[in-house]
């Protein structure tokens, strides 16, 4: 096969263009820091990246649900703790009020404190997180405990929520209920607000027999129930914390895999660019000798 001058020049230019394209690709990788900038760069790698990105998106959504659910549960735990403290104080006052030797002035002062504690308990029952009432079931925009008529001379407080359970998805087909409906801690055994009204009235009336034989037992029952409900909430908080730790590890692992699949090895790419630059310079030198001869050079 006869090799002509035109063939040599054509091959030279074609190889030079290939070298330019390789250098352009390497420079793009260095500029973006990414090995894959388009699907054609690595079709198999793109499929892996899409799968990893889907996993990251799902993990981040689960993490968001865990954080929101954990905040809800922690607020619930705090509210139940406050309610428990209120009931403990009411029990102390009930024991004091059951003393036959107290004068009417002391009994009146104790009864007034119980009345204030009752008001505080209503506020606890209407606790919110991020503007949502935590004890109302699905009725998160309306106070779950409202006034309805009178009881024992005080405004009667009733539960106005529902029994809706709010579930948060924290994993594939894994849902956790994050709310406690208000009837469970406040009215399931008996209406706590009515009980505090009864205690207040018994103290004010000096009804020590009722306080010692009836009210203390009722208080112990609702306090035990409150503690049981709070224990259930605490167990869910612990589960949320463990789930968050697991999801954080998964998120970190997926991010590392995605970086390994898409990002460049800077030192390696710089070395490749240097090699391409040397190849380019060598090609130019060789090309200068190929293109240099003229008709006069052949006639010499």
How do the strands of the widest beta sheet line up side by side?
1-2
The secondary-structure element order is HHHEEEEEEHHHHH
CATH superfamily of one domain: f41 fragment of flagellin, N-terminal domain
Average pLDDT, rounded to a whole number, is 85
Q: Tally the helices.
A: 8
Top-tier CATH class of one domain: Mainly Alpha
Mind summarizing the main beta sheet? 2 strands, antiparallel
- Secondary structural class: mainly alpha
Shape: rod-shaped
Task: Specify the helix fraction band.
Answer: 55-70%
Contiguous uncertain segments of 5+ residues? none
List how many beta strands DSSP finds.
Answer: 6
Give the termini separation: 26 Å
Strand fraction equals 5-15%
Give Rg in angstroms. Answer: 38 Å
The CATH topology name of one domain reads f41 fragment of flagellin, N-terminal domain
Query: Which CATH architecture of one domain?
Result: Up-down Bundle
Sum this structure up briefly.
The chain has helices at 5-32, 43-97, 104-125, 183-186, 192-205, 208-262, 266-291, 295-299, and strands at 128-129, 132-133, 145-151, 154-159, 167-171, 174-177.
Written overview of the protein:
With 300 residues, the protein is mainly alpha-helical. It has a domain at 52-256: Up-down Bundle (f41 fragment of flagellin, N-terminal domain). It has eight helices and six strands; from the N terminus they run αααββββββααααα. It has helices at residues 5-32, 43-97, 104-125, 183-186, 192-205, 208-262, 266-291, 295-299, and strands at residues 128-129, 132-133, 145-151, 154-159, 167-171, 174-177. It has a two-stranded antiparallel ribbon with strand order 1-2. Strands 3-4 form a two-stranded antiparallel ribbon. A two-stranded antiparallel sheet has the order 5-6. A hairpin with a 2-residue loop joins strand 5 (167-171) and strand 6 (174-177). The protein is rod-shaped and about 125 Å long.
């Amino acid at each position: 096969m006869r090799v002509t001058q035109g063939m040599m020049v054509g091959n030279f230019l074609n190889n030079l263009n290939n070298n330019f394209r390789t250098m352009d690709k390497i420079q793009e990788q260095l500029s973006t820091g990414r090995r894959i900038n388009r699907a054609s760069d690595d079709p198999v790698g793109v499929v892996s990246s899409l799968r990893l990105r889907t996993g990251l998106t799902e993990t981040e959504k689960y993490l968001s649900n865990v954080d929101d659910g954990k905040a809800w549960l922690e607020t619930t735990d705090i509210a139940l703790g406050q309610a428990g403290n209120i009931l403990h104080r009411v029990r102390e006052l009930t024991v004091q009020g059951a003393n036959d030797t107290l004068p009417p002035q002391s009994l009146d002062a104790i009864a007034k404190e119980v009345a204030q504690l009752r008001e505080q308990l209503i506020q606890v029952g209407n606790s919110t997180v991020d503007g949502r009432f935590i004890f109302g079931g699905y009725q998160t925009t309306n106070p779950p405990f409202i006034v309805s008529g009178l009881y024992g001379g005080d405004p009667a407080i009733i539960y106005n929520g529902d029994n809706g359970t709010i579930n948060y998805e924290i994993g594939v087909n894994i849902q956790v209920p994050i709310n406690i409906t208000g009837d469970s801690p406040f009215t399931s055994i008996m209406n706590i607000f009515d009980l505090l009204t009864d205690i207040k009235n018994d103290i004010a009336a000096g009804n020590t027999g009722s306080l010692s034989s009836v009210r203390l037992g009722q208080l112990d029952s609702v306090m035990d129930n409150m503690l049981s409900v709070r224990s259930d909430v605490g167990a869910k908080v612990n589960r949320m914390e463990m789930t968050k730790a697991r999801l954080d590890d998964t998120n970190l692992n997926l991010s590392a895999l995605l970086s390994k699949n898409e990002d460049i090895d800077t030192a390696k790419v710089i070395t490749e660019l240097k090699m391409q630059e040397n190849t380019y310079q060598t090609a130019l030198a060789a090309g200068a000798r190929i293109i240099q001869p003229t008709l006069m050079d052949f006639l010499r």
